[in-house]
Amino acid sequence: MALLSLSGIVKRFGAIEAVAGVDFQIEPGEVVGLMGDNGAGKSTLVKMIAGNFPPDAGTIEVEGRPVRFHKPVEARSMGIEVVYQDLALCDNLTASDNVFLGRERWRLAFGFIPVLNYRGMRERSRALFEELKSETRAGDPVRRMSGGQRQAVAIARTRLAQAKIILMDEPTAAISVRQVKEVLDLIHRLKEQNIAVILISHRMPDVFAVCDRIVVMRRGRKVADKPIADTSPEEVTGLITGAIHSA
Amino acid sequence: MANVSISDVSGRRTQTPLRKFLISQEFWVTVAVVVMALWLLINTDAFDTWRNLRNAMLNMAFIGIIALGQTCVIITAGIDLSVGSVMAVGAVGTGMLMTSGWGIEGAFVLGMLASMAVGLFNGILVALVKLPPFVVTLGTLSICRTIAMVATNNQLIYEFGPDQDALFLLGTGGIGAILGIDSDSRLLDLPFPFVMMIVLTLVLSYFLYLTRWGRHIYAVGGNEQAARLTGVPVAYVKISAYVFCSASAGLSGILMMGWAGSLNNSIGLNYELRVIASAVIGGANLMGGYASAYGAFIGAALLEILRNSLVLLKIDTNYHLGFLGLFIIFAVLLERLRDSRIKPSALMDLFFRRPR
Q1: Which residues have a Cβ under 8 Å from the Cβ of B308 and sit 6 or more positions away?
Q2: Contact B193, B259 (CB under 8 A)
Q3: Which residues pair with B196 in a beta bridge?
Q4: What are the phi and psi torsion angles at A10 (to 5°)?
Q5: How far apart are CA A240 and CA A222, in angstroms?
Q6: Cα separation of B146 and B123, whole Å?
Q7: Where are the beta strands (DSSP E) in A137-212?
Q8: In this structure, are strands A80-83 and A165-169 parallel, antiparallel, or unpaired?
Q9: What letter would DSSP give residue B174?
């Protein structure tokens, strides 16, 4: 049974059919690259998985149970987390504060005053960063961090929530070569932990470096869905641009 | 990030709390306050008279209490220009009810509720209708002043019914007199509004640093979109900041009425400038995301010691606002200097780099 299974998903915005009947499955520990040109419907598809809005037709199943999300919180409660392109971090807070934002832990000081448990949160964050083999320091403000470290903070947050499926939107766009390697390493760590990752990216080398399978969308339809070993960057480029109709 | 240094990548920049404090705006303003106090102590006769100190504490308290509320709003990247008029709403509400025979408790509660209603109005328009805070509170600044003028019919009120003495005691009385302790101790003669400000500074520090609400308010100011995506109740956090700010203004207005012994509808006029100046001098960043309760406290202290020194040095009052303006600009310059991590080019950066 697939961890996440979409069948016949359709989404229309007025007269435009942004997603026109897409089927898709992902297994635990699988990394799937979702590719397509701008307007191909990949972000609409991902937004439905993340719970931003429900599809007009078709069903979404998580571990065999049909779900219908109206708000991101509902998707999150089923173990689906999103790492946003702009990373959604607060620059003025520390890495640890960001990891625990909205899920703060507290304790009683002197037995009766509720206070935030900073030490506990920092230790847990440190453990999460170690798990991800990232050099990120839990107590440092995010403002001073590199792109790779910021990704680690955003991913640590999803780990804290015990996510089963992580959606990553262009995690390697606009960061340096060294940081790209850091991020790809992070994705390998997630795979080792048996977490499913859907990677939306325009960067062909990154997708081929970490993904097990590649899904290409064009004009709201899935035009290819095959293991990375059975395809090539040239074929994928052709599929994205429409030079090759389907594979 | 366009340019990333080695230390940025390796992340070797962990700051200890002490080091953080030593490079903070709050620390340097504290140093300035101490230096100015010492200078006045040595060079004037009147500074260290209890009468002058007590007067300074009172002046500072009326500004400082509201600066605490304003700080919360500024952290959310907002601003509340209506505080001066909300002081009048609180004072007029409480004062007129007392004049009509109400006891101080009931009148105080209703005066505070009236002020908080203004905060709720500001907060809802900012957080839910998403109007710019500057414009919304500029509107309530005028509306509330009008309410105060119409309600009092432009009359001076100086008769506050059966609990009049209690009101005056709250405004000027020592903490000992209020608690019913008979003593000549200076500590117990600390004016109630000043003690109130210290208590509120401690209470707000607790809320800002040690509660979820505190983390959330900083998160909203740092990156509102991020806060929303991670499930922070952004609208609730913002509205609560505006309500708290108006409550602090109402409280200050009521205490100030007790101190003045009378109520006219110009109470709190132009106070928004001094309140915002206190917060900014204390290190509050108007872009949101950074400010502290202690900063509001020490900012108000600096403002008052500046005013006090101008009075003691017998400088014409016409110049006072000008000095205030210079200090505000100086405080912001200081913040920029700290940000650029003191290095030879820092001064050049001050003048030639675009603000972030």
Answers
A1: B40, B47, B52, B56, B59
A2: yes
A3: none
A4: -130, 135
A5: 10
A6: 20
A7: 165-169, 196-200
A8: parallel
A9: B
Give the DSSP H or E segment for A168. Answer: strand A165-169
Contact A92 B232 (CB under 8 A): no
d(CA A77, CA B53): 58
Across the interface, do B210 and A145 touch by the CB < 8 Å criterion?
Answer: no
- pLDDT tens, residue by residue, B294-319: 999 999 999 999 999 999 988 888 88
The encoded tokens of residue B30 equal 């504290």
Distance CA A120, CA B144 (A): 46
Residue A245, SS3 per DSSP? coil
Query: Alpha-carbon Rg of chain B, whole angstroms?
Result: 21
The least confident of B74-83, B110-119, B188-197, B336-345 is B336-345
B83's tokens = 């505080």
Evaluate whether B291 touches B75 at the Cβ level (below 8 Å): yes
Residues in chain A with CB shorter than 8 Å from the CB of B227 are: 90, 101-102
Nearest to B1 among A89, A93, A147 (CB): A147
Catalogue the long-range contacts made by B17-24 (C-beta closer than 8 Å, 24 or more residues apart): B23/B338, B24/B283, B24/B338
Query: Please, what's the largest Cα pairwise distance for chain A?
Result: 69
Mean pLDDT rounded to a whole number for chain B = 88
Q: CA–CA distance from A246 to each of A17, B304, B326 (Å)?
A: 19, 75, 69
Tell me the sheet residues that pair with A198.
A32, A167
Q: What is the pLDDT of residues B251-297, one digit of tens each?
A: 999 999 999 999 988 999 989 999 999 999 999 988 899 999 999 99
State the CB neighbour count (10 A cutoff) for residue B138.
15
Q: Is B185 on the interface with A (CB under 8 A)?
A: no
ipTM (interface pTM): 0.81
Nearest to A144 by CA among B282, B15, B276: B15
Angle among Cα A146, B76, A115 to the nearest 5 degrees reads 80
The pair of three-digit structure tokens given for residue B71, joined into one six-digit string: 């700080």
Of A121, A191, A203, A198, the residue nearest A166 (C-alpha): A198
